[in-house]
Amino acid sequence: MDKDLGISIEEKVLRIKAYLDETLTPEEEVEFRQWLDASVSNRILLDRIRDERSLVDKIRFAERCDKEKGWCNIQKKIKKRPTIFIRFMRYVAVLIAIVVIGIAVYQVGDNPKEGDSEFLAREQPVPTKGGYKAYLELATGERWMLDSISKVTTRVEGAVIKAEDKGTVIIDEQRTDSIIEKMEYNRLVIPRGGEYKIVLADGSQVWINSQSVLEFPARFVGKERRVKLTGEAYFDVSKDVEKPFVVEVGDKEVQVLGTSFNVNDYDGKFMTTLVTGKVQVSVNDKNYILTPSMQVRIEGNDILVGKVDVREFTAWKDGLFVFKKQKLREVMDILSRWYDVDVFYQNLELQNLHFTGTIQRHSEISGVLKFLEKTDIVKFTLNGKTLIVSK
């Protein structure tokens, strides 16, 4: 994707809105983030448009001023033509919205002006800690937004799906004589800044991390229990020797009978870390058998298998960030997903700095940044939802 997304300004604004509404496909989001990384001004434009409430406030302000200054005069003129007036006011509302968005685009352009940082710090919301957020999308077309207090109960073929008020979705399989001819998958979509848990029809539990998608059936039929993952999740699989549990991650598969393990598949890097039991990871017709505390890591054409400290890769499920000589780039990738911020490096060499430490995952971002700054070799500036890393 080129610097201007290869589309008009109007379409660019609509694409940004789609990103903010979290309706982009995974492929579109990858391209969108590449565009964000191309220029600070692109990030500033995103931040200006991010808080839609500011647009609404400006529209309401314009409407309020109009009412205060000229409502009486307008009312006199339209008494005999109310239909025309209503249509006219609709056009005015649309025009105001277009003008406000247009001003944001024009003011940013490709060269941010002085004071942009101050504007962002003053106008944009400060990121807070992540929490229970998800979108439940059923094969039937139904869709719900879930949070920490959501309560949803719905029926699908052969099961009842319940969303409880503790960030958990439960699949309650219902015994039925009907035969399912085709396996249909539902989706639990976790946005940046979110996490959620699901209990599948077989009793297996899955903790899903930020910016991830789990596709699952309401009932497991056939000779295996198969789910599909994008992003990261921790699995605690119920044992069933007759039906192996398979996690499909792109062109890779993780197969188990009953065990607990973590799968991480972000930004072209794949890792499976085994906690208990045994798993088989299949990649390009090659199989890798893991025993407890082992990990298979794939990046490009490199495949590494070895022992690791599993806590470093699974602590997120228990509310902790555990960093062990981890590169700053990797640390920032984790924080950007959890706190929903976009990271910009003033010096690319900073990405290779290493950090070690344990931080509460549910801490405010300000506390986490202060902890990282204790090294005295890096500084963070948070402008709205853009996190600038400097020396």
Question: What keywords describe this structure?
Answer:
391 residues, 32% helix, 9 helices, 3-stranded mixed sheet, 24 strands, alpha+beta
Describe this structure in words.
The protein is of the alpha+beta class and 391 residues long. The chain is 32% helix and 35% strand. It is built from 9 helices and 24 strands. The strands form 3 sheets. The protein has a 19-stranded mixed sheet that branches. A hairpin with a 2-residue loop joins strand 18 (294-299) and strand 19 (302-307). It is globular and about 60 Å long. Residues 64-124 have low confidence and may be disordered.
**Coarse shape:** globular
Helix content: 25-40%
Distance between the termini: 30 Å
Low-confidence blocks of residues: 64-124
The mean pLDDT is: 78
Q: Based on helices, strands and strand pairing, what is the structural class?
A: alpha+beta
Beta strand %:
25-35%
- Count every beta strand, where a strand is a DSSP E run of 2 or more residues: 24
For the biggest sheet, the summary is:
19 strands, mixed
What is the gyration radius calculated from CA atoms? Answer: 25 Å
Number of helices: 9
